[in-house]
Amino acid sequence: MNWDDLRFLIAIHRHRSHARAAHALGVDATTVGRKLRALEGAMGARLVRRVADGHALTPAAEALLPSLEQIELHAIALERRARGNAEKVGGTVRLSAGDGLMSHVLVPGLPRLRALHPELRVDLVPDLEAVDLARHEADVALRLSRLSSPALVARRLATLTYGVYAGESYLRVRRPPAALDDLAAHDWVGYVQDASKLRPSRWLWRYVPRSRVAVRATTTTAVLHACAAGLGLAILLTCIADGDPRLVRVLPQSGVPGEAFVVHHKEDSDSARVRVTVEWLKEILAGG
Hints:
Elements: H1 3-15, H2 18-25, H3 29-43, E1 48-51, E2 54-57, H4 59-83, E3 91-97, H5 99-116, E4 120-126, E5 140-143, E6 152-167, H6 168-173, E7 188-191, H7 199-205, E8 213-217, H8 220-228, E9 234-237, H9 238-241, E10 247-250, E11 256-265, H10 272-285
Parallel strand pairs: 3-4, 3-5, 7-8
Antiparallel strand pairs: 1-2, 5-11, 6-9, 6-10, 6-11
């Protein structure tokens, strides 16, 4: 057994499919499958199972995950030391993102950035409204829609997927929708603020009248918890909701594509702090 095989298992866990794991690792899907079979053979146990929306770890593999992630961090640190002459990046980078992506995706991925660049300090700025990057209120921002400003650089970083979710308690008393036309018969959890510029919201309003929204919140975390509490269906990013055992994805064949954009000030285009942060964001969002 070697680290090369273990990192394939971690990638499958994070991206929930062989294809997305392959994309994140820069290989093809057949390589992911071959490495997984080799690892399962070496360990004498099945490590990955199929689920409705892709792949998930078996209980045996879940028990190993904390140790595997520690091995990953040690391997990253060793690679960094072995490079020796690699650029040292220090200072502080202020990173802005919505509270859902910040709490459920960026923070869990932060140990990798810190392992690669231990002298880099990271200020996390989870915000409800876009901070003013033109005034340097943040150095790097992750956004779900493109910002337009002559002072800023904005580019698409990743393609994301949204799905429709329900809490297990909700499904104990309400039959899950079997088709898109059934969505209008259900209660929904949504946002107080206008999210109509986002593709998932425009998709939802084609099938569901706004009067069906029973509970509204100002943060993704609150929407997720309200959905998990059984207050209604919600449309959420799969990279956020798939990791919550209280939630069930309904109509999994009806995923809605979305986009993630990284934004920074033009003056910071040559900043090492910004560059390594953007590279890290691209890596952890690959296949999300």
